[in-house]
Design a protein that fits this description.
Bound molecules: heme C, copper (II) ion
Structural class: alpha/beta
Number of helices: 12
Order of helices and strands: HEEEEEEEEHHHHHHHHHHH
Strand order of the largest sheet: 2-8-7-4-5
CATH topology of the largest domain: Cytochrome Bc1 Complex, Chain D, domain 2
């Protein structure tokens, strides 16, 4: 005969409890705690696009894991906006009021990526930025290696905000093609200057000063043609075309399509945008100064920063393009 054993009943109860509660807990835990850390999840986010005065992007920060497929449902709340992500291969889309746009991509690279509006939507349009964080498999957010700009600013002590009036500047528009023809007769001088890094860290005013002694029998105008040619050797037509596209979308609202600094948005700004067509200041600055200013932005001047939006190649295409307001490359045989 069996005796009622309270101990045994307790044991049976514990076993049943373990099966009933424990098993789902393990499955649930695996799926919801462990699984999202592994690659290949689909993460869906609703993102509202609104002018910065109305709140900008909501939410402003999105965090996913490396390898996740990210699906963004973009809701247009007020006016037409554009959605773009810097340094990622994601096609920009237009977000219209009252409509929902879907953007989908795989977050292949860990790091921080700025998403922004690429359509002029308000005087404060440039504040319409948010952050996409992609965590590495161990849950870290990799620290970005210092960019070329930061290295250069620190090592060479580039003064981004100092005025840089030129000692020498052209009074007519120098022609790169005229300079190219002259260059054939001044091969040794030209060869010594044909160094991209040297040309990017020297102002054209300083190059002119050096050419005064290196090419004593040229006129000032001819020296400037030679400089326009030297400047053209730091870029390519393809780079300039890319620079022009980026400029039209991101810079022209303030700096104007003509480079003269009086784009439609200039009156909302703290300071007047620089005129890239003004050789008296442009010739006094270096390409590195213009790169650094574009990357870092101004200090409370209204000049936005673009360093987190564009790749280094895109940044240089912009700087190269800005020089076309000073030098004429139009009829150059490249
Ligand atoms: C919202 C207006 C605005 C936009 C957009 C803008 N800028 Fe500017 N930018 C300014 C203002 C204002 C200044 C002058 C004050 C300063 O230097 O900080 C300036 C100055 C500059 C300078 C310094 C020129 C010098 O002589 O030192 C560079 C270079 C420049 N901008 C490049 C760009 C490029 C390239 C873009 C587009 C990718 C751009 N800016 C977009 C407003 C703007
Ligand atoms: Cu906008």
């Amino acid at each position: 005969m069996t005796m009622y054993n309270p101990k045994r009943e307790l044991f049976a109860f514990a076993v049943v409890l373990l099966i009933v509660v424990g098993f789902p807990a393990i499955v649930f835990g695996y799926q919801y705690v462990y699984q999202p850390r592994s690659a290949g999840d689909v993460k869906v986010f609703d993102l509202t696009a609104q002018v910065p005065e109305g709140g900008g992007w909501q939410p402003e920060r999105i965090t996913v894991n490396q390898g996740d497929r990210v699906r963004l449902r973009l809701h247009g709340a007020d006016v037409v906006h554009g959605f773009a992500v810097g340094r990622l291969d994601v096609d920009p889309v237009v977000v219209r009021p009252g409509e929902v746009e879907i953007v989908e991509f795989v977050a292949e690279e860990a790091g921080q990526f700025t998403f922004y509006c690429d359509i002029w939507c308000s005087p404060y349009h440039y504040r319409m930025r948010g952050m996409l964080e992609v965590l590495s498999p161990d849950g870290d957010l990799p620290v970005e290696p210092p960019t070329a700009t930061e290295k250069h600013l620190n090592e060479l002590g580039i003064l981004v905000d100092e005025p840089h009036p030129a000692t020498f500047y052209p009074t007519t528009t120098p022609s790169a093609e005229a300079g190219r023809l002259l260059a054939e007769d001044y091969a040794t001088v030209v060869e010594a200057w044909r160094d991209v890094e040297k040309l990017r860290s020297t102002s054209s005013s300083d190059v002119f000063a050096a050419l005064q002694s290196e090419t004593p029998d040229l006129t000032d105008e001819e020296r400037w043609d030679l400089i326009a040619y030297l400047w053209s050797t730091t870029t390519t037509p393809k780079q300039l075309a890319a620079g022009k596209r980026l400029y039209a979308k991101n810079c022209a609202a303030c700096h104007a399509m003509t480079g003269t600094g009086d784009g439609p948005a200039w009156e909302h700004l703290q300071d007047e945008p620089q005129s890239f067509a003004d050789a008296t200041t442009m010739a006094g600055g270096t390409s590195w100064i213009y790169y650094a200013k574009t990357a870092r932005g101004g200090m409370g001047t209204g000049m936005p920063y673009f360093g987190t939006l564009f790749t280094e190649e895109e940044m240089w295409s912009l700087v190269d393009y800005v020089w076309t307001f000073v030098f004429n490359y139009d009829d150059l045989s490249w």
